[in-house]
Design brief:
The structure is a single chain. With about 220 residues, the protein is an alpha/beta fold. About 20% of the residues lie in helices and about 25% in strands. The protein has helices spanning about 30-40, 50-55, 105-110, 130-135, 150-155, and strands at about 5-10, 45-50, 75, 95-100, 115-120, 140-145, 165-170, 195-205, 205-215. Strands 5-4-3-2-6-1-7-9-8 form a nine-stranded mixed beta sheet. It is globular and about 45 Å long. The protein starts with a strand and ends with a strand. The mean pLDDT is about 95. Bound molecules: NADP nicotinamide-adenine-dinucleotide phosphate. NADP nicotinamide-adenine-dinucleotide phosphate binds near residues 10, 147 and 179.
Length: about 220
């Protein structure tokens, strides 16, 4: 069975998850702590390769525990195998699965295998339906999707997102080239927009958190 997917992100009031230069320090300390608590409840955390390159995240729960066995599995969607070998996501704190397509060269796959498990899905871009099936098959029941904008859109388009938790910071970034919560091609008409049902909202320090179910 495919995992239940919760998209988690921090954005400015104008819906940006990074500036045009890729700067993305948006959440307050309190939200970061909360995100680590939420991660700890998940079987896996997933990001797109551009997020790995831009932010070099660890995607662990180090803010709340020093026990590496509490870290969820990390999944990188990376059709060409571009994950830098020195990326922190490949450190020894947790298992990492780099998901490639037939587009990845044998050299890149060999290099990545020194630090990660390599999973194959799709011919060009990573086939996300195939990926969710395979993650389900290895026992992943819950997955937190942590961006970026392009991967978020593909996951919505494929109908693979079940819930959303967004931290809205009291900031405005502007910029047509700044990435928004959900990018990609987008839908052509509002009638085709992905529909949500409000779950709850609350303040966390200066931030405002909203949670929805995806219909
Ligand atoms: N504020 C936040 O909460 C937050 C969270 C995460 C990221 N960010 C920001 O988001 C920015 C990165 O976002 P992004 O949109 O550029 O990139 P992204 O979503 O992180 O990665 C997209 C890349 O993933 C690969 N990919 C492979 N198969 C795919 C598929 N089926 N669908 C979609 N992507 C697929 C593609 O590269 P290949 O073709 O090479 O495989 C694609 O270009 C960074 O600036 C980061 O700081 C912010």
């Amino acid at each position: 069975m495919k995992p239940k997917v919760i998209l988690n992100a921090a954005m400015t009031l104008d819906g940006k998850i990074a500036t045009r230069t890729g700067s993305s320090e948006i959440s307050d300390k309190e939200d970061l702590l909360m995100v680590h608590r939420l991660r700890k409840e998940m079987d896996a955390i997933m990001v797109g390769i551009n997020t790995v390159i831009a932010d070099d995240p660890r995607l662990t729960v180090h803010k709340i525990t020093a026990e590496p066995e509490k870290n969820p599995i990390r999944v990188v969607v990376d059709s060409q195998g571009r994950t830098p070998i020195k990326a922190r996501i490949l450190n020894e704190d947790a298992l990492t699965i780099v998901v490639v397509s037939d587009n990845a060269s044998p050299e890149k796959i060999k290099r990545l295998r020194q630090r990660a498990e390599v999973m194959f899905c799709g011919n060009k871009k990573v086939d996300l339906q195939c990926l969710m099936e395979k993650l389900g098959d290895i026992g992943i029941k819950t997955l937190m999707l942590e961006g970026g904008s392009t991967l978020n859109y593909s996951m919505f388009r494929e109908g693979l997102v079940n819930e959303i938790r967004v931290c809205i910071a009291p900031m405005i970034a502007g910029g047509v080239q700044a990435k928004s919560l959900v990018g990609g091609e987008g839908v052509d008409y509002m009638k085709d927009a992905f529909r949500l049902k409000f779950k709850k909202s609350y303040t966390l320090g200066e931030d405002f958190i909203v949670e929805y179910k995806v219909l």
